[in-house]
Amino acid sequence: MDPFPDTTMLPFRLFGWGSPHWVENVVWDGDQAIRVFDLSVQPPDTGSRRSMSCGVVPLPFAVPPMAIVPRGGVDPSEEPLIGGIVHLELDAFEQRFEVRAADPRAAVALLDQRMMAALLRLPVAVAIHVHEDRMMLVAPLLEPGDMLVLLACAKGLAERVPSVVASLYPPRASEGPYEHRWLQGSWSPDPTSADRSEPS
Q: If both were cysteines, with which of 53, 54, 171, 172 could 142 make a disulfide (CB 3.0 to 4.6 Å apart)?
């Protein structure tokens, strides 16, 4: 069973289709709240069930959507690739991955030399999606033993997230009138309707 109540509230389209979800084989790191799990979704428009293995890494900032996808690879999440292609200065990385971002500055800040080197060393073929304060790794359904490998990959990437990104993109507010952001789809400076108080 999934002990995390927010899994289906993560800020990715994959969790917002209103379709049935099955989450199982959950493994997590207690210190950093990094977790991996097998996910099955059944979008109502197709009726065909799709399964994949996912990893989730919490981030100390909130950025617009970006995607790092293997060239010629398969992304079972079918997350939309928002924004234009971002070119980076490491040829080996450019040959293996395609990067798209709604804000190219966020991709350049996140993908420094250490992060690109870590991505090139990943032993599992994954697509990576970043939105707000979460990074999601997606792979075709893995064998149970490989889930620990995916968890190690997620922890390794978390350790290499550049600290400078947080100064460019402050974290989303977690308390007060601006905290209910998951269901809005994007951050807004205005309170949600649930936060507005009626005038007396």
A: 53
- The residues, ordered by sequence, that sit 6+ positions from 194 with a Cβ below 8 Å of its Cβ are 180
The pLDDT value recorded for residue 178 is: 47
The DSSP annotation for 47-88 comes to ---EEEEEEEEEEEEEEEEEEEEETT---TT-----SEE---
Whether the pTM exceeds 0.85: the reply is no
> Are the beta carbons of 41 and 14 closer than 8 angstroms?
yes
- The CA-based angle 67-168-104, given to 5 degrees, is 35
Q: Which tops the pLDDT comparison, 91 or 45?
A: 91
Residue 183 per-residue DSSP state: G
Phi, psi (rounded to 5 degrees) for 75: -115, 95
Tokens, residue 190: 């205005």
Mean pLDDT of the chain: 83
Which residues lie closer than 8 Å to 108 by C-beta, 6 or more apart? 86, 88
Q: Shortest CA distance to 172 belongs to which of 23, 46, 11?
A: 11
Q: 21-53 burial, b for 16+ CB within 10 Å, e for fewer? A: eebeebebeeeeebbbbbbebeeeeeeeebebb
